[in-house]
Amino acid sequence: MSITWGRESAARLGMSRREFLGFCTAMAASMGLSAVAGEAMAEAILAPRRPAVIWLALQECTGCTESMLRAEHPTLEKLILEIISLDYNEALMAGAGHQAEAARRASMAANHGKYVLVLEGAIPEKDGGIYCKIGGQTAKAMVLEAAAGAAAVIAIGSCASWGGMPSTPPNPTGCVGAPSIIKDKPVVTIPGCPPNPYNFLSTVVHFLTFGKLPELDHLGRPKFAYSRLIHENCERRAHFDNGRFAMEFGDAGHRAGYCLYRLGCKGPETYANCPSILFGDVGSGSWPVGTGHPCIGCTEQHVGFEKPIHALAALAGQTPPATYPRIVEEQGQGATLASAGVLVAVAAAAAGGGGMVMHNIGKREAESERDTRREEGK
Ligand code: SF4
Description:
Elements: H1 7-13, H2 17-30, H3 35-46, E1 52-57, H4 63-69, H5 74-83, E2 85-89, H6 97-110, E3 115-120, E4 123-124, E5 133-134, E6 137-138, H7 139-148, E7 150-156, H8 157-162, E8 175-176, E9 187-190, H9 197-210, H10 223-226, H11 230-233, H12 237-241, H13 252-255, H14 274-277, H15 327-330, H16 337-349, H17 355-375
Parallel strand pairs: 1-2, 1-3, 3-7, 7-9
Antiparallel strand pairs: 4-8, 5-6
Helix pairs in contact: 2-3, 3-9, 5-9
The structure holds iron/sulfur cluster (SF4).
C-alpha cells in the first residue's frame, strides 16, 4: 500500500505503519471488502479532515460510551477519537450545563448537513417525554432537532436501537428506539449491551471512506456484523452438534467447556459477530460464551432482556450436520438395519432440521447428568 506515513502518524494513532495497514486490511476483510478498500480506508483515516460527531446520551447507563473507550487494546479507542471530532458527549466533555449546550448548537450550526449524530439510550415518549430531559429539552425533541441537520445517524447499543432494557414490559417511560422517532432518514442500528466498539468504528470508517453507510439489514444493522447467528461461529458449536451440554453452572460439563444451550444460551437465535471479533481486543475467549456465560441475546429485540435466561433458544432453521455420528457406532457396535430404521424414523418425525439435534440433546442430557454425579462423588 502506498500511503503517506510519518512520525506524526505513528504518534497520532499510537501504532506502527505495519500495524496500521494490517488493521485496515483486517477491517476491510471483516466487512467483506477487498484489500483495495482497506487501502482507501487507510487513506481516509490519515486524512486531516475529521467529521464532527454529536453524541447524545439519553435514557441509558453510559455503558456504550464506556465500551468504546475502555477497550483493553489502546489502538481502538485511540482510533475512534482520532478519526472523529467528538464535539458533544456529556460524559467526556469538560464543559457542562449552558456551556455544553452552546457548544452542541454551535457545532450543529457550523456543520449543518455534514455531522454524524450518534444516539445512545432509549427515548421516552410517555407523558410528553418528560422522563428524560436535558437542558430543559425532552430527549425526543433533542433527537429530532439534531437529526434534522445530520448527514448520518447511528443508534449505538440496544436501547437506542429499539428501546433495549428500559423498554422491557411494563416499560414505565414508554420508551422506544431511534428508528421509531426518526422517519425521514436511515438510522444505522448497532445493538448490543454493550455494543462492540469495532462495529461502530467500522461503520464510521466506511462512511468516512465511501461517503455512504454500509449495507444494512431490515432492522438497520450493518450486514457485515449482524448477518450470522452467534451459534454459527461459536467455539462450542462442536459440543452442541455432538450433544455435549453443561447442565448446571459449575458442573463437569460446564468446567469442560461444553455447549451452554441447556443453560439458556440464546446464540441459536441471535445475530451478531461476537464470536468472530470478540470483545476488548485481547485475544481468544473474551466474549460471554467464551468465559462460560450463556449468550443472553442482547442484540435481538424480544430475546435479550425479555426472554428469561432459563428459557431455551428457538432452534428453527438449524440443520443437522451431514456427518452426524451414528448412535450404534458410539456404543462400539456395528450398524444394523433395525438401528438404521430407528434413526430414519426419528429424522422423519422431526418437524424441522433441528430434530436430530434435539434427539441427541435428550440422550446426552442423561449422560451429562451421570458424568456430573460421578464427578461430584454422588
Ligand atoms: S448454544 Fe450457545 S454455547 Fe452452544 S454452540 Fe450455540 S452459541 Fe455456542
